[in-house]
Amino acid sequence: MGATKTDHFSDSQNELAILTKALGHPARIAIIEYLLKVESCICGDIVNELPLAQPTVSQHLKELKNAGLIKGNVEGAAICYCINETGFDKVKAFFKLVNSHLDDKRIQCC
Amino acid sequence: MGATKTDHFSDSQNELAILTKALGHPARIAIIEYLLKVESCICGDIVNELPLAQPTVSQHLKELKNAGLIKGNVEGAAICYCINETGFDKVKAFFKLVNSHLDDKRIQCC
DNA sequence: TTATTATATTGCAATATTACGATATAATTT
DNA sequence: AAATTATATCGTAATATTGCAATATAATAA
């Protein structure tokens, strides 16, 4: 095997896993942090910012876009990227759930 | 290639990526959700809950534990698992940063 | 001591990810 | 139109992940 058994989990579990998986790489964390700082930029700016080749950055941007964490807008020959709040809202909703379970009770088995 | 170039990113970026990567699988999301619900349980309970074989569940638990998202406590022949708040606090800190960047300004390039 | 119970580890096949050179596409400039 | 600029896609090698059967380990019970 090697393929995730997505059909055995709920839609919301699969959707959340797609979002967190997209965040599960330091290059993509760096891209998100950079986009938060500069608000919006073109792919070339990120290539200059990261220690990765242009095709690699392009691939990471594609994954973040597919997951729904960023948006890309054609602007002449370039493409302008920015944060997609919709995706982040979904992840934040999960951590709201985590908080509501942990805030009041101090759960410790060890 | 195929190996992530972790040495080219900051410690905090790598650490956060380890945490989000661990959350990037529906089975591990399901385990976290279950642990939040029952507060603590043994591995066998999760095996009964998920559509995965015991070694597979054990492996997912190991990854969550290595990332710092859960704790395991030996309790006789069994091991009692529960949420590790420290790990979640680190992820929550990142989303606090995201919020602080997005809350006031409505960033949209498209 | 010999089961039994609970979990971890090993080994391996199938699949996915990461990274990048080479190349394609598409808009702009000269 | 030809060159330039900006990004995406293709192809591929190296590596990582997923899943599980078989087996090992470790504590408890009979």
TrEMBL record, chains A, B:
What SMART domains does the record tag this protein with? HTH_ARSR
Q: Read off the InterPro entries from this record.
A: ArsR-like_HTH (IPR011991), HTH_ArsR_DNA-bd_dom (IPR001845), HTH_MetalResp_TranReg (IPR051081), WH-like_DNA-bd_sf (IPR036388), WH_DNA-bd_sf (IPR036390)
Tell me which residues make up the HTH arsR-type domain.
8-106
Keyword RNA-binding set for record: no
Protein name as annotated: Transcriptional regulator
Q: What is the lineage of its organism?
A: Bacteria, Pseudomonadati, Bacteroidota, Flavobacteriia, Flavobacteriales
Q: Name one GO molecular function term.
A: DNA-binding transcription factor activity
**What keywords are assigned to this protein?**
DNA-binding, Transcription, Transcription regulation
Q: Which Pfam families match?
A: HTH_5
